[in-house]
Structures are given as structure tokens and as C-alpha cells.
Task: inverse folding
């Protein structure tokens, strides 16, 4: 999760290293496109691994599985708005003026969580959630 809150160009070296590792593992040519290799080897790219970790954190938040101080990381939309909406149980995305905070899990968590299907959000067991959310992210990668 630490690397996720960073500028894309700072992650480029790490992304390139992962792409190179995928080429080595699959014994592909040096210029082979990495996306088919990720799919073939059922590995998530680094950007999706960051999303996975953020989603696991938000899931633990909603199911009270975080240590006490971290349970105040997010507030839900229903505590901010008086009216009921479809996303009233989702974490509220606060407005931040700093680019670094916008890239952190504080801002990215609500953004990513809002795109997750309700059927996955309702899973209570962390190991099952991790398994299902990995499958979900992998399916997004393939489409």
C-alpha cells in the first residue's frame, strides 16, 4: 500500500522490473507485451496489487477488523449527508488540496471501493474477500 501513494513516474522503475520478471518467468522475448504474460501467469500488475491492498484495508475498516485508531480513518456517506443514496454505506471521499494525499489510501480507498460490486462488499470473512476481490481485479485486467 505504501508504493501506491506515489507519482506514476516514481513507480515506473518498479513496473518495468515486474514486467521484466514476467518475461523471464514465461521465457518470452525481451520486447513481449507484458499484459498477456500477466494474464497467462495469473499475476496482478503492481498497480492492481496496490488496489488489492487498499481494498483489503477498506474491507477491514467496514468489518471493524482494524486497530482502534485506524477505525477513524473513514466516515461513511450517511454520516455526512442527511439523505439516503445507493452509496450511503460507502466511505465518504473527502476533498483534499494536496496531490500526495489524493494519491494515498485516504483518498483512493473510497474511490476504489465505490467501484466494487455490492456482492463483494458484503463478504464478511477477510480470506474469502481477498480471494474474490483478486478474481474481480483479474477479470478487470482481462477485459
Result:
Amino acid at each position: 500500500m505504501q508504493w501506491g501513494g506515489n507519482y506514476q513516474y516514481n513507480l515506473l522503475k518498479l513496473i518495468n522490473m515486474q514486467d521484466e520478471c514476467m518475461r523471464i518467468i514465461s521465457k518470452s522475448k525481451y520486447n513481449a507485451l507484458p499484459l498477456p504474460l500477466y494474464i497467462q501467469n495469473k499475476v496482478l500488475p503492481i498497480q492492481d496489487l496496490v488496489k488489492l491492498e487498499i481494498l483489503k484495508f477498506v474491507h477491514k475498516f467496514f468489518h471493524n477488523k482494524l486497530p482502534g485508531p485506524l477505525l477513524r480513518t473513514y466516515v461513511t456517506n450517511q454520516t455526512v449527508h442527511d439523505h439516503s443514496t445507493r452509496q450511503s454505506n460507502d466511505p465518504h471521499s473527502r476533498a483534499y488540496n494536496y496531490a500526495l494525499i489524493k494519491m494515498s489510501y485516504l483518498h483512493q480507498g473510497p474511490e476504489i471501493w465505490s467501484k466494487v460490486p455490492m456482492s463483494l462488499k458484503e463478504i464478511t470473512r477477510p480470506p474469502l474477500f481477498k480471494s474474490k476481490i483478486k478474481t474481480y481485479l483479474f477479470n478487470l485486467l482481462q477485459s
In short: The CA atoms of residues 13 and 97 lie 27 Å apart.
